[in-house]
Specification:
single chain; alpha/beta; 2 domains; 5-stranded mixed beta sheet; 15 helices; 16% strand; binds pyridoxal-5'-phosphate
Length: 373
């Protein structure tokens, strides 16, 4: 597997990584739909030993995150492999706001007595530094889903921690182009490759990356034993998607900043949240820790859940759909999802795509106005 050379920008690595240098080989990694291989070269069974197609995705994301990667069937499969490492009776610390799947996984394990869960507010850096002294798993997600809180990962990942403790960062919203948790000292960085890496809403995949050799082996073993293996086509598509991630992110991020600014001033909007807005509670941290503010905006519509639902019904170019990080803009009301009762009922999460920003604004503005009428 090739390592990301230090003199190559990540934007160039994305384009070239995961390729064979063998003469006559296909330029791009081929789809290798194999369960087994002829014995003799070390690779025998794909669930145990991987495939060239999975490894291409691992090389791309590993280089981006500055570590060694293991690809999984989904983001949740990668996350579950990290939780799988915990000894019985562990303490897990989660942010007050985080992806509902992770919160669900943590509370399901707690109900079965596998670990206990504590919550710390994402902006409470002192609270996190303190948690590092006693927790077995410090789970961070920054920017968070969907309130877009930004944690001071630089300070938290460098804090002294309990022997053997794991500091994990769900880096899906930032992408490795905006933030590299392993460089700050995190044990493992997680990507739902379903989102920005795939980038086209057509696959499920996840990647866990670490610099810790023993932890890498443990994650790989977990994939082998639980069978949470990625699909061949999914890895192929994720690599293809990753090639354009820098361009997609740059474009969508610029549009998100413009839209957040306008949403903030819109008469139908009570509150707009975006880490790039000076009004955002963790803007100062975001400015210091992140290279870019991302493509997700969450905003509260005046008039409650009903008005927010009407906005979702009235958009056209923006699709009323869940998920994020793709070429197309999608929007949904997050409190409509089970287990999201802590959110304002009229909060809409908008994932900005690569459409023309004025077309997006026309669509959004018209939907907001018609919901008010
Ligand atoms: C989507 C998402 C996940 C889960 O990833 P899947 O690929 O859907 O399993 C985890 N964390 C965050 C922040 C996400 O947005």
């Amino acid at each position: 597997m090739n390592q990301h050379p230090k003199d190559l920008k990540l934007e160039s690595w994305l384009v070239t990584a995961g390729r064979s240098s063998e003469l006559g080989a296909p330029l791009n990694v081929p789809l290798v739909p194999a369960s087994n291989f002829i014995i003799g070269r070390g690779r025998e069974y794909s669930r145990d030993d991987g495939t060239p197609t999975w490894e291409a995705l691992e090389e791309v994301v590993g280089g981006l995150e500055s570590g060694r990667a293991v690809a999984f069937a989904s983001g949740m499969a990668a996350i579950a492999a990290v939780f799988d490492q915990l000894p019985a009776g562990s303490t897990v610390v989660l942010p007050d706001d985080c992806y509902q799947g992770v919160a669900g996984l943590a509370s399901a394990g707690a109900e079965r007595g596998r670990w206990t869960v504590r919550r710390v507010a994402l902006h409470d850096t002192a609270g996190w530094i303190d948690a590092c002294k006693t927790a077995d798993l410090v789970w961070l997600e920054s920017p968070s889903n969907p309130l877009l809180g930004v944690a001071d990962l630089e300070a938290i990942c460098a804090a002294p921690r309990k022997a053997g403790a794991v500091v994990a960062v769900d880096n899906t919203f930032a992408t490795p182009l905006n933030q590299r948790p392993l460089e700050f000292g995190a044990t493992v960085s997680l990507q739902s490759a379903t989102k920005f890496i795939g980038g086209h809403s057509d696959l499920l995949a996840g990647v866990a990356t670490t610099k810790d050799e023993a932890f890498w082996h443990a994650l790989k073993k977990s994939r082998e034993l639980t069978g949470a293996t990625p699909g061949t086509l999914e890895c192929f598509l994720a690599v293809r998607g990753a090639r354009t991630m820098a361009l997609r992110l740059q474009r969508a991020q610029a549009s998100a900043m413009a839209l957040a600014d306008r949403l903030q001033a819109h008469p139908a909007v009570e509150l707009a949240r975006y880490p790039g807005l000076a009004s955002h509670p963790t803007h100062a941290t975001a400015k210091r820790v992140l290279k870019g503010y991302g493509t997700i905006i969450s905003f509260d519509v005046r008039g409650g859940a009903e008005a927010a639902d009407a906005v979702c019904r009235n958009v056209g170019l923006i699709r009323h759909a869940t998920s994020l990080g793709a070429v197309e803009s999608t929007m949904e009301r997050r409190a409509a999802i089970a287990g999201q009762d802590h959110l304002p009922p009229s909060l809409l999460r908008l994932s900005v795509g690569i459409e023309d920003v004025e077309d997006l604004w026309k669509d959004l503005d018209a939907a907001l106005r018609s919901a008010r009428a």
